[in-house]
Each structure stands twice: as C-alpha cells, then as structure tokens.
Amino acid sequence: MKRILWMAGVVLCFFLPEILLAAEPEGNLYPTPTRLFHIARSVNRNLVCYDVRLSDGRLDSKEPMEVYWMNREEHEGQRGGLSFIQRKLAYGYDVVDKGDDSSVVTLTAYPARRLEIVRDGERYVCRTIIGGQPSILRWLYVKASDWNPLAVEYVELHGQVIATGEEAVERVKR
Fold first, then answer.
1. What H or E segment, with its residue span, contains residue 3?
2. Is the separation of the CB atoms in 158 and 166 below 8 Å?
3. How many other C-beta atoms are found inside a 10 Å radius of the C-beta of residue 108?
4. How many Å separate Cα 84 from the centre of its chain?
5. Does position 21 have pLDDT exceeding 70, yes or no?
6. DSSP 3-state assignment of 116?
7. Beta strands 102-107 and 79-80: pairing type?
C-alpha cells in the first residue's frame, strides 16, 4: 500500500502541472462594461485587455477592438498602449470580415483562430471555438518558457459554451 501511494505521489509530481489548467488571474482585473476578453501571462501579473470599440452605439467595423495594457504590478491600475512591435508581432489583431454590427478578427500571434465580435443582448461578446464547442471567449493565459520569456509553451483559452453555459477550456501547444 505504501508503495502504491508513493507511486501515485511521483506520478502527481510529474504530471500535475499538465493536468491543472491556469486559474483566473487573481486580484483586480479592472473590468470595463466594454471588455471582450483579456490575456494573462506567466511572466507577470499585467494584463492585455481587449475592449469593444463603438461608434454611435454600434460596433466600429474598421477598428472593432481597443487593445491596451493594464498594469497590476509597479503602477497598479495604470493603463498603457501597445508598442508598434507588440501590436505587429504579439497582441495586435487583423479584421478579416466585416458584417452589420459584427466583425471577425484574428490575433496577430495566432491567425488560425477566428474571433467573432457580435452583439449579445445589451453588450458585445467575442465568440470562437473552444475545445470544439462554440463559446464566448473570456480570457487567455499565455505560459512563457522558463528559459526564454519570449517563447510560448502553450496558450489556454477560457470561456463559456454558448449552448450549455458550461466552462470551456482548451490548451493549445506550440
């Protein structure tokens, strides 16, 4: 019995990090009424926020999202813009289709995943496929390599399955 418990402990030590998924970032997320989703990263507590951009109460189809940093460390609560490099290589987005009060975009770092910004009742949401299910995207977690903070080990998408309301999670490895 002791040997079985010891072996179970060894298995958990080696595989538990892969079994557990990232928890929602702790602390104040500084939510806004227009927040579509945010990106949390393993390198620090700061967030990259994606808010819907409106024009006359409707989605701005040319630039449907406002993207910015939310500082949660040195200058807590301070908001800042993305640099040119961050926009072009990591956290920016491209509009790939425009609809009537909706847009389809892709994130610069992951153009294979389409994100649809649509009105859902009184607010806008970002829909995508998470774990094979049509879902509303809430947040992403980016796990950087321990050896190279610019290299990504995996990205987790977190959201809510549209049909059931259940939590949707998918880990994408690079």
1. helix 2-19
2. no
3. 16
4. 20
5. no
6. strand
7. unpaired
pLDDT, average across residues 63-70: 96
Residue 93 identity: Y
3-class DSSP state for residue 87? helix
pLDDT band at 132 (very low <50, low <70, confident <90, very high): very high
54 alpha-carbon distance from chain centroid: 21
Q: For residue 151, give both structure tokens.
A: 């290299």
Q: What pLDDT is stored for residue 149 in this prediction?
A: 78
CB burial readout 70-102, b (16+ within 10 A) else e: bbbeeeeeeeeeeeeeeeeebbbbeeeeeeeeb
Give CA–CA dist 122/129, Å, rounded.
22
- Which has the closest alpha carbon to 117: 96, 140, 90? 96
Condensed to tens digits (0 to 9), the pLDDT of residues 138-153 reads 999 999 998 887 889 9
Instruction: Give the residue from 105, 34, 39 showing the smallest Cα distance to 70.
Output: 39
What's the CA gap between 130 and 128, in Å, rounded?
Answer: 6
Question: Which residue do the tokens 């080990």 mark?
Answer: 153
Q: What is the rounded CA–CA span in Å between residue 140 and residue 7?
A: 33
